[in-house]
Amino acid sequence: MDWGLKNRLSRIIKLQNNRALMLAVDHGYFLGPTEKLEDPKKVIAPLLRHCDSLMVTRGVQRASVSATSDTPMVLRVSGGSSIIGDDLSQEDITVSIEDAIRLNASALAMSIFVGSKYEYQTIVNLGKLVSEAEKYGIPVLAVTAVGKELGKDARYLSLACRVAAEQGAHIVKTYYCDNFEKVVQSCPVPIIVAGGKKIPERDALQLTYNAIKAGAVGVDMGRNIWQSEHPVPMIKAARAIIHGNLNVDQAFKLYKKLVSEEPKKKQKSQKKKSNNKKKPQNNPNQKKSNNKKKPQNNPNQKKPVLTKK
Ligand code: 5RP
Predict the structure, then answer these.
(1) Where are the domains of the chain?
(2) What gap in Å lies between CA 37 and CA 27, rounded to an integer?
(3) pLDDT-derived band of residue 276, with 50, 70 and 90 as boundaries?
């Protein structure tokens, strides 16, 4: 393996324990403004220092991630369909290798849709992307995307992961399922697990723990972190499993402890805000004064909407 490729990979999968915590925020590339990811900048900022790498599109990286960040970027380079289009599996490569290099990508990510209408196109694209990226020492992460009609079982996922690895993917991302050890055992490259739809926090931590126990290097988790009411405690708890070897009970206890510490700060700032707000017109105990407040000068007050008749 070339030095550059090895070096980039080692920033994503940590050498000391062969583990990885990737934060996925690339959902908008086909879902648009996904719930709780409407403002990527706000979502990413407090989480960035807690993940090992960030999975992101070039648009969000440029607009919403500080260029001074030293977190490795796993750049999604495939796309072309949206959730309201005809077929999500119709993807192509949408980012040039030159642009990926300009963005200092530590890895490139693309989806393959094994068993779908566009299976051939996406698998050939993966092979081509690996050939191109290896010229520059950039690893490729293949996402085994799962359509509605395709099962999330070990038989199917083993097939999809193996196909990705055979095309030269350096890491394969897939979904957790029963008998996941079989998926890991038959894939010759590291497997990282997607979080999937939002589930209760403890269940997401259980998934993280199970995936690692079955041999995955870690998780590439999105919704179960930033759709949580408490994203920072959640990512810290997942991190504690991946890098701190905590079990699920310990990690969930940590999550609850961090949550219990969080609202105090929020409550304080909310109290402060409400103390600053004066609503003289609603206070029956307040004496009338000649220094009448002019509501139109209050920047916190919403202006009435003017409509043309
Ligand atoms: C979409 C992706 C997402 O990054 C992936 O699904 C991970 O996010 P989540 O944990 O929300 O499932 O690759 O194709």
Answers:
(1) 3-228
(2) 8
(3) low
Instruction: Return the CATH class of domain 3-228.
Output: alpha beta
Tell me, yes or no, if 173 is annotated catalytic.
yes
Distance 89 CA to ligand 1 centre (A): 15
At 296, the amino acid letter reads Q
Instruction: Confirm or reject: Cβ of 201 under 6 Å from ligand 1.
Output: no
Q: What would the pLDDT profile of 140-158 be if each residue is shown by its tens digit?
A: 999 998 766 667 899 999 9
Angle at 87 between CA 86 and CA 91, to 5 degrees: 125
Query: Is 26 touching ligand 1 by the criterion CB < 6 Å?
Result: yes
CA 33/CA 189 separation, integer angstroms: 33
Ligand 1, atom 8, lies closest to the CA of 222
Q: For tokens 């994503």, name the residue.
A: 12
